[in-house]
Structure prediction request, 143 residues.
Amino acid sequence: MTTAAPSVTTAALMEAVAAVSAAYFQDFAGAAGRHGLSSSQAKALGVVLEPVPMRALAGRLGCDASNVTGIVDRLESLGLARREAAATDRRVKIVTITEEGRETLLKIRADMTRAHRALDSLSADQRTALLGMCEQLLPLLAS
Prediction:
């Protein structure tokens, strides 16, 4: 008689996702630092690939709106992002990435050697499956 393999618990999956996320973030933070940015500043560049109001940027970064001001100030001083008044409400400030900011973000992502090595180790089928799982989970986690 064969016994069914024990099912993987949600707790085990949560631990695995947390460990992978932490390792990815460490690689990202290291790459950002090598390009003169904090991880929050580099993450903000990824968020503002499309124009984003300051308040929404704070929400996506998971920080207080007052912290975003300092992040955006630094990105502006480096020429990586710009802040403009919204056309519909001049009190609302919209943050957009500059071309130099796009190039910097691409360099940071290219410099994430551990993430590249790990993802490149997957077969084409595994890459497709992982992407599908991420696309399925992300909307559920973001809601």
Remarks:
- The longest strand covers residues 81-85.
- The chain has a mean pLDDT of 94.
